[in-house]
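User: Teach me something about this protein's shape.
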Amino acid sequence: MRMYVWARIGMFIVLLTATVFTLPAWAEDTPDIAALRAKAESGNPDAQFKLVLFYSHGDGVPKDPIQAVAWYTKAAKEGHADAQNNLGNCYSTGNGVAKDPSQAIKWYKKAAKQGMAEAQGNLGNSYFAGDGVRKDLRQAVEWYTKAAKQGQAEAQLKVGFCYDTGGGVPKDSEQAIAWYMKAAEQGVAEAQCNLGVHLLEGDGIEKDVTRSLEFLTKAAEQGCAKAQVRLGECYYTGRDGVPRDVTQGITWFTMAAEQGLKEAQMNLGIHYLAGDGIPKDLVQAYLWLNLAAVTKSDRAQVQELMSKEMTPEQLEEAQRRLSESIVELYRKAAERGDAGAQYGLGVCYFAGEGVKKDMNQAVKWYSKAAEQGNARAQYNLGCCYAQGEGISKDPKQAVEWYKKAAEQGHGEAQHNLGLCYGTGDGVAKDEKKALEWCKKSADQGVPEAQVSLGARYARGAGVKKSVRQAIVWWGKAAEQLYDLAQFNLAQCYASGEGVSKDMTKAIELLMMASDVGAGREVKHPLWRSGARTLGNLCLFRGIGPRMDTGANKECIETWN
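Assistant: First, the predicted structure itself:
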């Protein structure tokens, strides 16, 4: 099972569709919790909702998101609006229950129709993103407006944004500014930033540089990267009527760049490269331009160009700083709760990139991201449990995390889950489910799954035996240069099983699988037996490439 460096189902669903929950008695309940539990079990929705808070935070009882969902559901069914909204959040994030955006919409609507502003805002978000419901910007604006009129600051920001961009309503800068102002007065940084930009540009409001800088500075001091980069541009260039101050400009660019804003990183890299207003620094330029690069191709171009200007010592120092900076960027975002950054930080600890390799820390950050529904983190966490890396080996936990990732469409997790069902490792053996998950993964183009599916057809495991079907799937994996598939196909061509016998084709596939003379990194240990087989065929059958080729020479050496 591979671990890549770059939800709950089953019983949970059964419980949530049942009329009555079976909730355990807790012998260690404090008197307050015991009294609250008694009220909750008698059907009091307020008590049920309050009890959830104890389970959510682990206050007086073991932290248990599944029990939290159970009590949320009870209270929600009794019409408790807060419980309905929070249950929607659980379904939206997959916290304590299998992720299900359509169920999230169901509960958000119930709470929203009772006038709950937060639920109205959540429903607006769902319509805006098309999450669990068909994307509909008009519906998004309608629900945002309901929440905004109740004073919900984030909804006010979003109504302003919709008027600003013409999303779901006719574009109207004056309306946008009015809503931004309401949100800005409540301290919403992004609203302060957007308001500052309108004042700076005189868009929909009279231009006022002084007030603009006030709003932009307020937003920037709250950590709004967009405001920081805009202030950086104003001070560095001295445009828009702002007195030029290079030091101030670089300070704001740096703050935005350290938050990962590509625009700021690019500006900072260019200024350090040119030495425009600040001392030229190739190491800093290399660092920020690499961080600003969007694709691997962009990064490769930056590294190629910069390496021509730098000494080996400068290049080594720049690469060291780059690795460390990536870790710090991930760490800052991870500590703010960003699931993608938590996953990335876990990867850094797993690979020892920019930080000392530490599997315990890798598992810690994978766990945080996985609990927020990040499929890649769920898969990697499953691998850690399966292999006992950074945590005690636990096949059942491995299966649970593979399931969560697989249900989100993660191909490698689907394959590993299929393997677990096939072997009965961590779950009851089930050939039907093994085939189902293996097929899902193979259909996504995962070569290991395609080889596994081919093997199932070849031996008739959970499916009618068909060597021809096996060859189809091995062929798909072979096209991706997966050596084990090439090796299996070679055997078919050598034996004539499922295809016309063709020893030349068999030798060609074995050469590809063995990487003989190709200098490519080998994927699978079977390359040695493939090389031996190829050497045997070439030496004793006189079939295939001529005896004096470099490939044959290496085959002979390997075979000997």
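Now, about its shape. The radius of gyration is 30 Å. Residues 312-335 form the longest helix (24 residues). If you'd like, I can walk through any region in more detail.
User: That's plenty for now, thanks!
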